Predict the 3D structure of the following.
Amino acid sequence: DRNFSYAPMQDQWKLDPNAAYVHYTPNETIGGVEIFWTPAAGSVFTGWGGACAGTGDCVVTVAADTNVTATFVPATLEYMLTVTHVGSGKVTSSPKGINCGKQCSRAYTVGSSVTLTAIPAKKHQFLGWSGACSGTALTCTLPLLNNTDVAATFN
């Protein structure tokens, strides 16, 4: 019926009265099993492990035994952001905390979004980011989900 594109309302189910149980899994999709995460109050989701990676959606096609882990940490946990740079310039942050010459560090609450800004000295250029940031844009925004290192290079 309808090419399996919907789940009928429970009162419309045609169940065998002799069945021992009903197994209904609303998270199964045509593409695989969709896994949802909801942190408990006071916790922050920091990422997937096993068959999923990163912090985005997790959909797994199960063809054999498969493990997926979701990692949660207390929302009060802090991680260090360490910034180093080579050349003439400085790096600042929003929220405030990073405003350094060659190297500085600051602790931020887990899950904080930090925007770093590279500021080249007069007559110098910003060449790019490395570490947790990449590219040559003057700003880099990253979530603090673990201790994080970033480097900025100026000429």
In short: The radius of gyration is 23 Å. The chain has no helices and 13 strands. The CA atoms of residues 89 and 120 lie 4 Å apart.
